[in-house]
Amino acid sequence: MGTDEFVSSFKYAFISLAAAVGLYATLLGLLTTSTFQSHVVYLHAVQLTWFKDLNVPEIFGFLKNQVTPFSIKTPDDEQLYAWQVLPIELYRKNELALTAEPTGFVSDIASRLSFQLLRDDPEARLIIHMHGAAGTLASGYRVPNYRALSAGHPGKIHVLAFDYRGFGRSTGLPSESGLIQDALAVTNWAINVAGIPSSRIVIFGQSMGTAASIAVSHHFAVQSPPTIFAGTVLVAPFVNVPTVVSSYRVAGILPVLSPLARFPALFNYLLGFIRDKWATNERIAQFVRSNEINEEKYRLTMIHAEDDRYIPSHHTQLLFWHAVNGSVPVGITYDELEERKAESQVGLGAAGTVMEWRTDYGVIREEILKNGLHEVVMGYPVVTMAVMRHFEAADPSFAR
Ligand SMILES: *[C@@H]1O[C@H](CO)[C@@H](O)[C@H](O)[C@H]1NC(C)=O
């Protein structure tokens, strides 16, 4: 290689490096703006069900009128698009009457048989479903998820799914306070309009939905008098957003912020720009603590697969610790809890491990699966079991 060639290839390498650094810096700059950030955190523009009409749930594999599309209004006037999903055995018993009804979006849900079957059955149970980032209530593994949720008692367990503001057909733009308002509005609808008492409701969330689920469970637990649900089930939860982005890799490969971890001042400076922090670690501890103080019975299950590439299962171990710590008046360190786990954690071989922490009032359960990725796990029988365990604990006659 001649000197000129050397100089020009060096120049070329330098220019590419400068361009890469410039691009990275631009990306970081964009990330500090709240609009771009909300697109990255919520991915609400990534619909995944493009060109498919959510008002025709049959497209996604449901039976005719098994799903009733309708909307729920929030106190700040957003319209949330929702689905009431009938469990299969209840559908079978009412098949003729259901198929005879009109199809499509319903403006007065009280006029529909599906709603009456929920409202008028004193034994009906309801799952309030809070989905993860991106997509709509019809995308990905959410449909098999609805089946798993009601599989334990397919004559009784209804599912209420919805899209947060800014997602799918719902109005508005997402934000932490907005999504919490949405989750509260849907829960209030279930209690006040459908008339289902909280003891017959399980709050379910996956990924980003776990943060909304805990926010709702916490919100109701700290009211006076408190409202306690039959249980809260979290699949693939995370400690908080700053902890996720610190280790987040785009497509599981490209690190976003972790290269900067070597520069703590810059790193923390950038983390300071995160608008919606979703501090589940704090909310979960406060949820547990207030239930212990109020002597309310509560149940919480966290499920996480070891091969989850988006949110490592370590997040569940940390949250389990925060929750358990909330139940111990003097607190417990992470390492102390690890020692207790070594004594009483149940090994299930290839199915993973289970650790249950019981107090006089509550049950906090951690299930670490070997397999299930970030989303596939939603359709697994562990989800069915978690739901049944909570409903049975809230009312032992349910599982007989
Ligand atoms: C654990 O609980 C104790 C006692 O309530 C509290 O002082 C401590 O801050 C908690 N630790 C964490 C990490 O939240």
TrEMBL record:
GO terms for MF: hydrolase activity
Q: Which InterPro entries match?
A: AB_hydrolase_1, AB_hydrolase_fold
What residue ranges are annotated as transmembrane? 12-31
Keywords of the record, alphabetical order, are:
Hydrolase, Membrane, Transmembrane, Transmembrane helix
The residue ranges of the AB hydrolase-1 domain are: 128-318
SUPFAM superfamilies, per the entry: alpha/beta-Hydrolases (SSF53474)
**Which Pfam family is one of those matched by this entry?**
Abhydrolase_6
Which PANTHER family would you find in this protein's record?
ALPHA/BETA HYDROLASE DOMAIN-CONTAINING PROTEIN, PROTEIN ABHD13
**Mind telling me what this protein is named?**
Alpha/Beta hydrolase protein
The organism named in the record is Aspergillus cavernicola
Q: What is the lineage of its organism?
A: Eukaryota, Fungi, Dikarya, Ascomycota, Pezizomycotina
